[in-house]
Amino acid sequence: MRPFFVDSYEGIQQPPANASYIIRSHLSRGKTQVCSPKISTKMLLSGAEVYTSTESRFSIRQGQFLITAPAEELELTIASSAVGCCFYMDVDYVHRLTAEMISADLEGGDGEVPAVTTTRLPLNGSQLGLSMLAVANHRLDPDADVLATSLAETTVYLSHLRANLPCRRQSTQRELVARLEVARTFLIEAQDRAVSLRELESACCLSRFHLNRSFARVYGTPPLRFHQNLRLDAARERLGAGEPQRTIAEDLGFSALSSFSRAYRRRHHHAPSADQPK
C-alpha cells in the first residue's frame, strides 16, 4: 500500500484511483469535508476527531477506529490536534472477499453480502484494528490483501451482531453494536481481575438494563457470565500447567473451592481435576 503524509487540510491532490493506499496525518485544529469512493478505516495515535454526516455523529479518539462506507460525505472536525492513519481499500475487492466468506459459511450457497456501514469500534477488539495499529506503529508492513481480508471478516461479523438486535433503525444498530463491542473488548482486557456491572456500564455508556439484555442477545450470554467464562478458560490453562486448584479459585474470587468446582463444571463439563497433570 502506497503511503502518503498529510499535515494540512488540503489532503493529497491525486489519490490513486485503482489501488489501496495509506494516509498518515498530523493535523492541527480545523474543519473540512471528506468523501472517498473507497472504503476507508480511520484510526488515531493521539488526539480526537469528530465525523458528522447528515444522520449521525462519530467521535473517535486514541484506541478507536472508524470504518467509513464508500462515498459517504462526512464533515471532519478536530478541536486541537490529531495524529493518525487512514487506510483506503478497493470497494469491489472487499465486496468479493466478503461474498466468498458468506459463501463458505453457507457451504457454497448464495447469501446476501452485507454492506459496509460507517461504524466506530475499539482497536483492540478485532484483528483489523490490531493490524492497523501495528502498521501505524511500523511493526507490520502494510499489506492490502491482509487488511482487506480483515475488513471483510469484520463486515461479516458486524452483520451477524446487528441481526441479533431488536432495533431495526440502522443508526441505532450501529451505535449499539459500537458500545457492545467496547464492553466485550473491556471484559477481554480485564479478564485477570474482577469486574462489576457498574464499571462496565461506565466503560460502554449503556444502562444496566440495555447492557445485560443486548449483550446476551448478541454474544449469547450476559456480560458478567461472559467475563467469568473467559477467566475459567484461563483457569483451565493454569490447571494444565500444574497450578493448585485452591490458588486459582482464590485468584478468581471464589469464596470456596466447591464454588469454583461448580462453575468450572458448568463451563467445561468436567471437574477441574480432569485437566490437571496426571
Automatic annotation (TrEMBL):
Signal peptide: none annotated. It comes from the Bacteria. The keyword Transcription regulation applies. The keyword rRNA-binding does not apply. Keywords: DNA-binding, Transcription, Transcription regulation. This is Helix-turn-helix domain-containing protein. It comes from Exilibacterium tricleocarpae. Coiled coil: none annotated. Pfam families: HTH_18. Residues 181-278 form the HTH araC/xylS-type domain. GO terms for molecular function: DNA-binding transcription factor activity; sequence-specific DNA binding.
